[in-house]
Amino acid sequence: MLRALTHAVHRKARISQLPAIPVSCYFMKILVALSGGIDSSVAACLLKEQGHTLIGVRFALWSDPLAPAMAQLLPSKCCNAQTASRTIAVANMLGIPLHVVSMEEVFKQGVVDPFLDAYRRGLTPNPCIGCNRTVKFNALMRLADEWECDKIATGHYARTTDTLAEDGTICTSLLEAVDANKDQSYYLHGLSQAQLQRTLFPLGTLSKQYVFELARRFGIPFDEHYQESQDLCFFPERDPKPFLIRHIPDALCPGPIVRTDGTVVGMHAGLPLYTIGQRRGLGIGGLSIPLEVVSKRVESNELIVDDRALHTTTRVSVRELHWISWVPQEHVVTPFECRTRSHSPRYLGSLKRDGEHGMFTFDAPISLQTPGQSLVLYRGEEVMGGGVME
Description:
The chain is an alpha/beta fold. The chain has 3 domains: 2-218, HUPs (Rossmann fold); 252-307, Roll (SH3 type barrels), CATH 2.30.30; 312-389, Elongation Factor Tu (Ef-tu), domain 3, CATH 2.40.30. 25% of the residues lie in helices and 28% in strands. The protein contains 8 helices and 17 strands. The strands form 3 sheets. The chain has a 6-stranded antiparallel beta barrel with strand order 12-15-14-13-16-17. The protein starts with a helix and ends with a strand.
């Protein structure tokens, strides 16, 4: 029954305008990324149930050597002993080879160092997007070639669809997952056509609740205390402040907290420890109206605050624009919806681009946005692309 059920789910997931392909062509050799979490484990089980030949790979990523030893054991992180043990158990259960590939140096150089550099420059970066684009999926593609795999697969909640262009080439589009609460397409908007065309997202049409049900049916080991991996994986704490204090103490110079009218209302502990829109933890007391961070002046080491919700914006500059299946014309105002966080509301507006830079104008004023975060563009359920907000 489970075999029939999973086959039905994935037939529905193959939304394609390509000519029909014989069913036998779907039996492939697939490199599946196994983090040790429930999602990647279920993805592997579904693919194995469908009859594909699998090779499992787990990446050993860089983790903070300066972090407190006890904090390294937190169950909510993806690179700890619990997830490593679950990865081995799932690979043994499925009878597939499992490779553990060291990515410490590449991850440190490609993710951690740019993360710290961005904080030094007064930004609040989103390292997961760059990690997917330049580290993890690049490595998966290289290993798939080395081990002669047809496809790669991950446990991300996202979907793809293929169309056949007039010139006979295939174009792959990225779609949001069916489960809006778990959708991860925001973090995948930087992937290339080559990466998307070769990637399977087996969980894209499934709800998280159903994935847990499948995990129980497949016998994947987890207990009632299981916690999803969350936050950034390369330090154990939920907040980046302890990590920043450990690694860029020279950038944490105390300075004045200043209102927009120039009034000094307090002292900050270092600009990297604060973010745009922050209202708590400012250390400013005795005020009748709550204040929020509205900007950082890195040159003068000033943290600028003002009355809560007093400041809004109608446009934002975007750099490093990346497009997935279609590129709008330059210097033409093009309507889109956008998100400025992975699960923020969608905002209506339009983009006018100049090369890899652009200006997004919102149809209505919104709260101040955080430089360094990504603005991702949508049309319906399709993710069109995005860039980094300046």
